[in-house]
Structure formats: structure tokens, C-alpha cells
Amino acid sequence: MMENKVFLSFTFYSTILILKMYVVAIITGQVRLRKKAFANPEDALRNGGVQFCREDPDVERCRRAHRNDMENIFPFLFLGAIYSLLDPSPSVARIHFLIFCVGRIIHTIAYLLRLRAPTRSVAYSVAQLPCFSMALQILLATTPYW
Asked: Is the pTM of this model over 0.85?
């Protein structure tokens, strides 16, 4: 498997995306602490009192960014892994993975920094293109075995 250049490229970009998700989770926790907005009463009690068991718009923005990552990166992990097994051109595959990765990074930056529309939606749409391409290629490769 480690001789498969496409899979190695997929592994590299997937790891970058997983690390990005960890960073968003850490940012969410830091915003919770800074804004004193905790999801659980025991956390609020530990950090000033039960009155801090509340929602905050900035925390919710971070949570939405993280949820959006899960909704998009997890399918990419599946599609990319299967696509890697189809023996695609390494350079074409790398372009697929790079576009998705850069699109998701820009999407997160746009989400967290509240960049002007349509930055976030363009980043989202661009990142979806390689996923649709991989999905279509997987379907075309597997249709004869249906």
C-alpha cells in the first residue's frame, strides 16, 4: 500500500484535513473559555458558575464550522480512499486532493473570520468538485459489478 503514490498523496492531504479539524476543535474550546459559554453545567461550575452554562454566537459559529467539516471531510475520506484503489493518474489524483484540501481550509478561514460572502460558499463549491469527480469515477468503475 505504501508503494501506491495516489494513496500516499491521499494520506498526506487527509492528515492535513484531520489536523485542521483538531485546530477548529481547539479554537472552539478557547472561544468557550474566553466567552465563558459552556455546554455543560459541570464545566460552567468549574469556570465561574452555573450562569455560564449558556450559548454564545461566537461559540456556535465555531461549532457550525466544525460540523460542516464533519459533513464534508468524512465523505471525502471515504471517496478518496476508494478512488485511490482505482489506479488513477497520480498527478490527476493529487490535483483532486489538493483542490479539496485548499477549498476546505479557505472555507474554515472564511467561516471563522466572517469573510464577506460569497467567499465561504465559493470555497465550499470548489471543494465539492473533486468529490463529485471521484464519486462519478468510482460509480463508473463499479457499474459493471452491480
From this structure: yes
